[in-house]
Amino acid sequence: MKLDRRSVLAGTAAILASPFAGATIARADAKRQSLVDQCLQSAQKVLSGKDFPDALKSMANAKGVLIIPELVQGGFILGAAGGRGTLLARSKPNDWSYPAFYGMGSGSVGLQIGGKVSEIVFIILTEKGLNAILDKKFKFGAQAGVTMVAIGAGIEGATTAAAGTDIVAYSNSAGLFAGVSLEGSYIDADNDWNALYYGPGATSRDIVIDRRYTNPGAEPLRQFLAKW
Fold first, then answer.
1. Separation of alpha carbons 31 and 197, rounded Å
2. Residues of 13-46 as b/e, b for ≥16 C-beta within 10 angstroms?
3. Which of 128, 73, 64, 47 lies closest to 102, judged by CA?
4. Nearest to 67 by CA among 81, 51, 48, 87
5. What is the pTM of this model?
């Protein structure tokens, strides 16, 4: 049977216009899904492992979490860092949003020795800290009124974290890097990735606060965080 070209085109257009088309495309987006899966692994390591004894205490009051599975730093003379991750927010106990995609980067000038890969989980303790990340490009050390404490593996920091801190960063690093610091680093929403994973028009606030978008690929991460 000979197919009418206009019928084929009309059928294709109808499929793309279907409300399920976005979900189908999202499920097939391997690159974004791989990052979500890595974020789950990092969250499990930090929140279930023995290297971060105070992380669970911080989670009791968490408004959100930002997970960066790999922040790569290295080079000589000029140093740079970059990585991607996801932000999730909690509206009530055991109820976490779907993850919104973020990029993290920094630049520095000076002597750099070797290279380093850092795994960082930011636990956001206040609405002020969460809104500062959601509303605009967030720069550590420069964001007025927002305080942050960075804690390395095996270092307890409950006292410091409880003293009005907005964000606590739990970091685990491998390799050598002279003078590494989160000072001057920034995080910014990646709405291009959000749109690719959830559908056109998806923004971080739409996903994390308004909860207008979903993707079944993120359920394991949400379910793990739902323990808190």
1. 9
2. eeeeeeeeebbeebeebeebbebbebbbebbebb
3. 64
4. 87
5. 0.78
Read off the DSSP letter of residue 4: P
**Hey, what amino acid is at 45?**
K
CA-wise closest residue to 76 among 178, 211, 197: 178
Residue 5 phi/psi, 5-degree rounding, is: -60, -40
pLDDT digits (tens, 9 = 90+) for 3-56: 454 443 444 444 344 454 445 444 548 999 999 999 999 999 988 878 788 888
Rounded-to-integer distance, Cα 184 and Cα 101, Å: 20
Whole-angstrom Cα distance, residue 138 to residue 153?
Answer: 24
Q: Would you say 101 and 193 are in contact if contact means Cβ atoms under 8 Å apart?
A: yes
Q: Are 83 and 68 in contact (CB under 8 A)?
A: yes
CA distance readout (Å), 85 to 23, 159, 181, 194: 21, 27, 18, 11
Write out the H or E segment, with its range, that includes residue 120.
Answer: strand 115-124
Q: 112: which 2 tokens? A: 């750099």
What's the CA dihedral at 129, 86, 120, 150 to 10 degrees?
0
3 DSSP assignment = P
Which run of H or of E encompasses 31? helix 30-48
Domain boundaries, the chain: 30-225
CB atoms under 10 Å from CB of 55, counted, come to 24
Total count of residues recorded for the chain: 228
DSSP structural state of residue 143: S
By DSSP bridging, strand 167-175 and strand 95-96 are: unpaired
